[in-house]
């Protein structure tokens, strides 16, 4: 893409190569201005090359054919190896006639586009690494004024500025020029200006202008615009729509949904865009390409600004966002169904097992969370609200509670604005669940009460049952077990009336915890057993594992140690089978406590080490560290 530093790299490489004696004949440089309104042709370039080789005036052949013949003859006779740099090429026809015709010399071509039809060695350039981008701006400021201490005083602001520039060398140079012009104002002031702008490319083009050391204009938008204007209409449309996609990386199937194309057509157009440098194919950890695509931040900002400035393109963009939301809602609903699937139920389509559903959700999480936030616009609320609901099982499973807070809040607000009382109730309820898991218990209770009020007012008995159960769990977490018991009993009765066996089992299990907190041990044991048996009856082995763990804890506190150890073992087997590594870590930690209490530190330490490993696999580093510390204390 433009501004990536192709010319700078080519010239720096040429200088180093010549210093090392690789090209005793020196280097010849021609700027073909391929992206200007009037690019340099090969016929014009050969005249400049002949002039550099000393052929001019009466020695210059009169015809283009004669000029090319003279040029190649000179290079063919030239014993000293020479490097030919043909810079800023937009069309192979600009440089193919200029090739020396001998492999004695070398040619370096720079272009924003890949000449895939030609057998040339290609070196793709990426934006700078974050540290290098920061260093470039800092050095530019210090080279101009060694007393400029802003980089040392504002390291975080400088790093943020480099990120806002997309680590693109041209944008970084423009930002450095703007900072030099506005000295001694803080770097943070420019960061703030960029954040406040609808299109950051406009702010970056508000600098002092001028040229860099290679004579290139320090302006950004024309560089982006020339690349965009050269695209065929289909690719230009795809780039505009891709700039509107949620998240930073977009899967091919999502791009197809966004653009309303079949998968093969979308892939073909993406590959064409990648050849222009405007889109990058993402590489996995193993270095291999994956079917995901990345648009540089500044290209995204430019394309999104192009859409915003045109009413017809805005409508095209809104229709595209609606298509991708439908696609995400459909996929998320099937992933949700797979995560909650029980034996005997119809098999959900698209995802053959839990692992595939979780893999898709992991891959798309950032985009899904961003898409739900489109609910801030009423046009998308009817899709964003159910999408938020479909994500709940996953976000709780993976313990992404901050994301859950964001998603639930967006859904609640959108449902309230659009008069969707059921959606608003679900939003408040999920907000309460996220708050409880984040330790904000009183806020969680308030949220569940709001949800319950809406469900009861709407006559939603099933929703009311769920809200009572979630409120009960929050009350128990707040140390109010008697109130929790009353709420659990209400929830259980409603679930029994509705024939919801799984939810009834949940209430028996959670009711037992509050009974245990009040010292009603035998009742708690009976309730855990009822929960376990109901889970097993419907094939919910994960639920049964949770019930086994809770039953074991009750037996442990009651002094029934042998039974507790056996129950913890049963729980651990089911949690591992289900891939519930957080649950497995919790159970192993409980087992370690039992072994330590019964005078078996070796087994306690082994259990703690296994718990630390399980928590690590669950993405719970704080819990893993505590278990590791406990194991270390037993050495």
UniProtKB/TrEMBL annotation:
Q: Which PROSITE patterns match?
A: TPR (PS50005)
Q: Which residues form a coiled coil?
A: none
Instruction: Map the TPR repeats onto residue numbers.
Output: 425-458
What keywords are annotated for this sequence in UniProt? TPR repeat
Q: Which domain of life is it from?
A: Bacteria
Tell me the protein's name: Tetratricopeptide repeat protein
Tell me the organism: Streptomyces tricolor
Q: What is the lineage of its organism?
A: Bacteria, Bacillati, Actinomycetota, Actinomycetes, Kitasatosporales
């Amino acid at each position: 893409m433009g501004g990536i530093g192709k010319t700078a790299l080519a010239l720096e490489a040429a200088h180093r190569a010549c210093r090392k004696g690789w090209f005793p004949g020196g280097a010849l440089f021609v700027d073909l201005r391929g992206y200007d309104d009037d690019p340099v042709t090969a016929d014009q370039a050969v005249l400049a090359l002949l002039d550099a080789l000393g052929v001019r005036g009466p020695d210059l052949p009169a015809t283009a054919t004669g000029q090319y013949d003279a040029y190649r003859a000179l290079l063919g006779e030239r014993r000293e190896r020479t490097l030919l740099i043909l810079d800023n090429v937009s069309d192979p026809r600009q440089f193919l006639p200029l090739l020396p015709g001998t492999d004695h010399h070398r040619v370096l071509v720079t272009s924003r586009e890949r000449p895939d039809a030609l057998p040339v060695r290609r070196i793709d350039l990426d934006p700078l690494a974050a540290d290098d981008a920061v260093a470039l701006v800092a050095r530019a400021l210090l080279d101009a004024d060694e007393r400029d201490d802003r980089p040392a005083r504002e390291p975080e602001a400088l790093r943020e500025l480099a990120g806002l520039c997309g680590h693109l060398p041209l944008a970084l140079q423009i930002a450095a020029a703007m900072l030099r012009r506005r000295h001694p104002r803080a770097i943070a002031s420019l960061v703030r200006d960029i954040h406040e702008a609808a299109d950051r490319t406009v702010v970056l083009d508000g600098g002092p202008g001028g040229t860099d050391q290679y004579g290139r204009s320090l302006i950004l938008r024309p560089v982006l615009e020339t690349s965009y204007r050269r695209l065929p209409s289909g690719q230009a449309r795809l780039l505009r729509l891709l700039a509107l996609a949620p998240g930073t990386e977009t899967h091919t199937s999502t791009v197809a949904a966004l653009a309303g194309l079949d998968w093969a057509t979308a892939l073909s157009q993406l590959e064409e865009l990648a050849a222009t440098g405007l889109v990058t194919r993402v590489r996995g950890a193993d270095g291999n390409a994956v079917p995901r695509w990345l648009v540089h931040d500044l290209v995204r900002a430019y394309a999104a600004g192009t859409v915003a400035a045109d009413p017809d393109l805005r409508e095209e963009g809104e229709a595209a966002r609606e298509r991708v939301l439908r696609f995400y809602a459909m996929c998320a609903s099937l992933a949700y169904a797979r995560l909650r699937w029980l034996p005997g139920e119809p098999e959900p389509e698209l995802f053959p097992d839990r692992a595939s559903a979780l893999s898709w959700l992991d891959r798309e999480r950032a985009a899904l969370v961003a898409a739900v936030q489109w609910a801030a616009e009423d046009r998308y609320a009817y899709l964003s609200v159910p999408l938020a609901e479909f994500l709940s099982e996953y976000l709780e499973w993976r313990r992404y509670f901050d994301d859950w807070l964001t998603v639930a809040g967006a859904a609640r607000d959108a449902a309230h604005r659009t008069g969707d009382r059921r959606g608003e109730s679900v939003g408040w309820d999920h907000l309460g669940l996220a708050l409880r898991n984040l330790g904000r218990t009183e806020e969680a209770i308030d949220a569940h009460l709001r949800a319950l009020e809406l469900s009861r007012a709407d006559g939603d008995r099933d929703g009311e049952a769920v809200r009572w159960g979630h409120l009960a769990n929050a009350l128990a977490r707040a140390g109010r077990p008697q109130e929790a018991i009353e709420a659990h009993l209400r929830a259980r009765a409603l679930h029994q009336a509705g024939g919801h066996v799984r939810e009834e089992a949940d209430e028996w299990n959670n009711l037992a915890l509050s009974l245990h907190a009040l010292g009603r041990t035998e009742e708690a044991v009976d309730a855990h057993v009822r929960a376990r048996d109901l889970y097993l009856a419907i094939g919910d082995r994960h639920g049964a594992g949770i019930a086994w763990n809770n039953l074991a804890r009750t037996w442990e506190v009651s002094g029934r140690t042998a039974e507790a150890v056996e129950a913890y073992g049963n729980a651990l087997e089911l949690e591992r089978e289900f891939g519930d590594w957080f649950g497995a870590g919790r159970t192993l930690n409980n087992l370690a406590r039992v072994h330590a209490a019964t005078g078996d530190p070796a087994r306690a330490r082994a259990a703690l080490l296994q718990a630390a490993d399980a928590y690590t696999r669950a993405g719970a580093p704080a819990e893993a560290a505590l278990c590791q510390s406990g194991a270390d204390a037993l050495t």
